[in-house]
Batch of 4 targets.
Target 1
Amino acid sequence: MSPGILIVLVLLLFIWLPVSAAEIYGRVWVAPKGRPAVDATVTIDCDGASAVPARVDRYGRYRSPGVASKRNCRLSVEYQGKSSSRPIVVYSGTGSRSANIELRVSQNDIVLIRR
């Protein structure tokens, strides 16, 4: 086999390989009553490779597919016009990762507690 054909075959192999992506999902609720944080926004930043912000549904669930794999991701939450001051860190790995978050809301801040 000629070197040119071999190079083309190797390049085609790399083009057809799937791009490795992860998914982070979970529930977000407000302490102390445990009610869902409806319409909160979970933003995920994986070492600078940002994912699309995920909205929390009426059951408190969120899902963010297409997150960069094998990275330390910082999750922050915006809820009722307030933002969390400190993100929580989740390793994305490969495949799906669960990150459930409890919110402690004060007058000026939201504290995130991973559960």
Note: The chain has a mean pLDDT of 86.
Target 2
Amino acid sequence: MQPEPAAKTSNPRRRFFILGALFELLLIACYLLPESWLAVKIHNFTLVAHIPLLFLLESGFGETAPTAILILLVGFVVMSCLWGFLIFLVTKGIGSLLIRLNRNQKRFVWFGAGVVGLVCLAWAGISMLPQTPRPFESSLEIKSVVDADTAFALDLYQKLKDKPGNLFFSPYSISSALAMTCAGARGQTEMEMTNALHFSLPPEKLHPAFKALAARMDKIQRWNRIILKSANSLWCQRDYSLHTDFVRLIEENYFAAAKSVDFKMASIAAADEINRWVSGKTDGKIPKIVEAAQLGPATRLALCNAIYFKGKWQHQFKVSDTKPALFHISTNASVTVPIMSQKEHFKTAYSDDGSVELLELPYAGTDLSMIILLPRVDYFLPDVDQPGLPHLEKELTVENLQFWLKELDRTTSHETRVALPRFTTTQNYDLVPELKSLGMTSPFDESANFSGMDGTTNLFVSDVMHKAFVDVNESGTEAAAVTLVLVKTKGQVGSFIVDHPFIFLIRDNGSGSILFLGRIIDPTK
């Protein structure tokens, strides 16, 4: 009769150890799950929880098979004890809480826990479902707008390429903001803007096409668990009236929120309100687009477009595989940067002359992809004249880009070892000089005609400010861009190693729309 108490005290310990061991085995088994957002989160949690064990294995203690096996067994026992102890603490805490409740309260608690558990299981199951691209049938009008945006994007790139260092902007954001402005332009001003932006559609078809592209983005976001938001706003001087038709067009086709501010007497407050809107729409990645000094008594209108994208790679890079390596800025200069690497099935292609390699890195759902355009350069032959980034930029025409992308789309994915630098960059531009050089001159001077906005010819564009942010890491990409227009009164390879400067773009594979475009010369800046 005496051994019974000892048995009672030992059983709970054994039970919690077994529960801890089962939980440890469950974490190990999760590595067999198909690749998904939830699987990556579980993998990362498991990696962090087992850092001491991994440190022992990599520090030399596990160089031989017997010691490695011993460390793994000891680690399994230790982790089982740890998980078991945590389970014991949780169950004891729940037990002490339940003992204070009456029967009905306990039933309510268990019912709530069951509902939460079912919701979590359903959420986990949905996250494991394969993410498929959203079907999209492009109309002639949408294709015309996409082609125009692509041509404008490359024109603007050619104007910005002479700036030193990295380059990054959102052609879609800039085109959208200028399209809203163009809706109020008339005469020579309208003609210059449509020519520079390559718009060929009449207004009654142009603006609904932009509306359809915005609806496409919203559909991608809803179905494929990525964040892709585009927002527009119209900020008007409080005592200044705009044509009802103009405001209605902007609201209906660009979903722009019309807001009244006081540029004359409260420019600081107006700037703060615009910047708060921008920060909210870009998840804080672009906290400020305008300074109070840029606003004043002459400011009548500010049209703003913000686009924010955050997506996970379809095939995510493992953090543990990221290692420091050389990135060759030029033939005689290099920097050490964290290089992500993985071996998976990707699409790759070459240009006709073999001077450019292309790689497609799809995001979850495969509706969006990052396309890398890498000039083929051998930095082990510094004395040989080789085509590099300047040659690629010279060849970056609409015809060439469309041909390269078609070739890439036609290829089938194959196993490729990819090495890509991890990078973050923020770029800020005043685009007025570049837009003027593209032929858009009258909107910025005394001859401007924006009578479609207010019925007068007293308005002109004073500033076109654009700010863009991108962060590329192991899990995916986060990018944001904002364009602000201020209107005032007159007054196939086995490996793809990205270790030197390259051009990249993020596109909607369904419509072909280029959402972001840039180049990286130095990933550390």
Note: The CA atoms of residues 41 and 83 lie 18 Å apart.
Target 3
Amino acid sequence: MKTEIFGGVLQDDPGLTSIPQALIAVAEKLPDRIAFSEPDRNGNYHSITYRDLRKKVDSLARAILDCCEVPVVGLTGSNSTAWAITYLATLRAGGVVVPIDRELPVQEMLTIIHYSGANILFFDERYAEDLSEKLPGREIKMVVMNTAHCEGIPTHDDLLRKGAGSAAALPETWDCDAPASICYTSGTTGQAKGVMLSQNNILSNIKQMGLVLALEEDDVFLSILPVHHTFECTCGFLFPVTHGVSIYICRGIRHVAEDMINSGATILLAVPLLWEAMYRKIYGAIQSMKGGAFKYRLGLTISRVGEVFGNKGLRKKVFSKVHDKLGGHMRLCISGGAGIAPSVVDGFMKLGFEFIQGYGLTETSPILCVNTLEANRVGSVGPALAGVTIRISNPDIEGNGEILAKGPNIMLGYYNNPAATAEVLSNDGWFSTGDYGHIDDDGFIFITGRKKNVIVAKNGKNVYPEEIEMVIGQESYILECMVAGKKTETKGEEIWVIFVPDMEKFIEYAEEHGFSLTTDYLAEYMRKIVRSFNAAQPIYKRIARFIIREDEFPKTTTRKVRRKEVLREAGLEEGISYHV
């Protein structure tokens, strides 16, 4: 096991000196290429070229400067061309953009607006009434996007028209080491943390991505993840835009497969829950076909034999019907935002899809490491990116320790929160990720779990909930599961698991076999899963108790499970309390 690796030197790219300048260069080089295609309310798509994108960005930037000399722009809404124009125009004007999760309660949005010092707020029409009535006392310019008219509030189109006739001077240079974006990781209390990223932070990540993923001129990104999230914003928005690649905005999760066909998408970024759901659907469809299981095994055998003789593209041909269901053009699937089950990655690859996984955090712009097409180790999150050093702090006997990172993509700090910054960022630039992991002898990084989730057994050994979840979560009748520790007086922390059964499958099975589904039946089924798992584990890793939950786990807009909320509801975590 290694304890430190360096991803190599990150060379300067003269075409990426600033985000505004990169857009100008792309618009001059590829003026007629489609930048964005976006659906209207009727599902009809409308496109904008890079020439027109640049014009609108410049117009809105002038309008923003007419509103505020030093703009701090709050931005919330669905993925849209207007959202992208606003983000780029804010940077073009030399301002700071504050992306806000569109699914947050209004009170949490107001908290972020308050802490960030935003003086302009762009939002979708559906927020107009709540935000206009509840904004703080200080003066904030409001602009509504994605609508032609909103009573009493100027629209995005209004500002574009005003900006087109404005004489405001746009900056020709930018301080790329100053904050360009403030991304809030939480927003409910005074502990809200705003991650400050500079243009250089973001540009370094764009350069790093460019070294591991060579974009092709006919590539099309399908934008499905919320663009306020740093993974989508850097990798699914700014990365393709600064390279002149087209982005097709998906209508929503229900329409992913159809939009992949309509768009001719070649690259899709998604979180594990989406990939896992897609894979279950694909595999289930194969198994339900007449002779499907046999044809699948035969296809795998033919593919393996073909690869032995150098035919690397055979899998895609053998499983062409699966590829056609997803548009037939998909050349790269990328998973990030959380750990994904290795069996899902392996399953996609067996079907002939190129599938890679990476790792990072908002504080790292966000990518720190990623597998590549040339070096892809299933179960790993890949080697460190160029310019990034990864260190394992205080590794245990198995090589696991907290992952520390250093590089040009590490945040400037938390906005107006030096104490929180000092907790995670050392004076010499090392960022503490809060994740445990190890580095194998070949330099591949493996994540074992979050530091705050670790269960400490009575013998002092660490148990990583995520590792157990990955194993028992593979059971086909389990929709979701969560593992946590419960403190006891004599046994240290016991391991508990919360199961969400796949009730559709259970009901279907009960109907087919002529019996009524009962709570006792479900409990006995889960008990067998737990006992089977425990039989293969040392005593300290064995599950002590389990809970059956009816509803799916609550999730964020990026499909991450709200872990604290689930544990609190199950009585496995106490909320913060204070003495009276």
Note: The radius of gyration is 25 Å.
Target 4
Amino acid sequence: MSSLNFFSQLFGGLKSAYGTYELNGARRSDGKAEGKALTKKGEVTSELFQKHLNGELSLGIVPIMEDNNCKWGCIDVDEYAGFNPLIIIKKIRELKIPLFPYRSKSGGLHIFLHIDGVIPATDMIDKLTELASRLGLADCEIFPKQRTINVKLGTIGNWLNLPYHNAKLTTRHAIDDNGHSIPIEDLEKAVKPYVIKPEEFYKIKVEEYKDEDELFAEYPPCVQNFVKNAVGEGHRNEALFNVGVCMLKKHGKDGAWEDELGDINKGWGDKAYPASELKATVIKSLSGDKNYNYKCQTDIARKYCNQGLCMKRKLGIGKNNYSFTVDSFQKINTKPPKYILTIDKKPVRLTGQQLCQQQLLKTELFDWDIVWKTMEKEAFNMWLNYLKSMQTDVEGYDFTDDDKDEFQYLFRHFLDDSQVADDITQTQSDYIYSENGSVFFRAEVFKKFLKKDGNNLKRDEVKELLIDNGAEYVRGHNGYKARLWKVPKPEQEDIKERNVKFKRELPGFDPDADQNI
């Protein structure tokens, strides 16, 4: 098989959109190269892969396909200053995990899990999340970033820059276990032992940490790691704090939590705190009357975090302390723009108004089983700035005049088919209500009409169809509280009646005469 064919099959993904990245020559303070990322609607062809290998463009592929399957996943290790990939590669091989490393465009590491076939993207995400936590890479990005997508509505997923850009002179190459680069012509031979069948994927298991303590299995993943692996200066206090919280949950305030914390600290050998210093710092900070929670957002805890697993454990964070993760933020360059906010691998499509008003955002996220905790105004504005800093643009998904005309035609039929209410309260009985040039109705009523018309759309697809065509979601009107959609009433079309002429003619028989039948 040619290098091009093998490469395009190995890194195959979504076929209807792709990404490009243009470096601008600048670097961030941490050494990462800066540039402009753009998502484009268009067929992913072998010519694009060839241009990538030739160095004519930098190609990014979305791993999740239209059917929500994928054939690869990746842990994006975003470390630069003093970064040594051999430490990670050694750990991967010791754990006997079929992962394969490539250098990234910015000098980090892309650790791929290649599949000979396809598996659901949601399974790939769960597996890589588990592996990343054990490898101390849980703070790294994981691709796919979405569990499901809907290409027709513009939720197309996030792409990853491929290796071997300008293959003959590339710095984005696969590396072997000794850190040596693998040229493109040798890639197939080098990677094939690590390309696994779907049935092999489901057999991947990392040996769990073992301990004589029966409750050890109920510790948070980060605490399990801290118990078994010493943490050096700079993060030692943060690590021992979480261990201390775990011991408090295990023994209670009047129990032997201080003693077990001290024993774990001693087990760190030359990296341990002196007993007096441990008492004056960590133990003192946990000796108040309040209930203490784990510090999940510290750098060291995030490296080993697995919130989904931690919630289920007896000594874990519990559901009340779960915090969502923002995976990506995309702007679809339609008129007006739409936004895709991916939280906990769920892509949520939003308008600018929904993003900027917390109550609207809270309602929308709640429909996706995400509970938003209201922020102070200043904190919320900082969060919006954070989203803008990570924003990537998506082009080619604007709605044409034909699309809008089709909706207007459909909506007129909906109005003709519906019963009109005398009062807005009757919208709860599946009526529509018209006032001052606007029509109010429940989404479910429109959904039923579409189904009867042969368009069996899902609830979210109905909502997106309405939003894309200027509908506004309201929580009431003139003092009446209800969740309704408000759509400008279409202008009455001036349809001329057909000019039908009737011609009177005598029949070819006498109707009064007797007929022989």
Note: DSSP finds 18 helices and 18 strands in the chain.
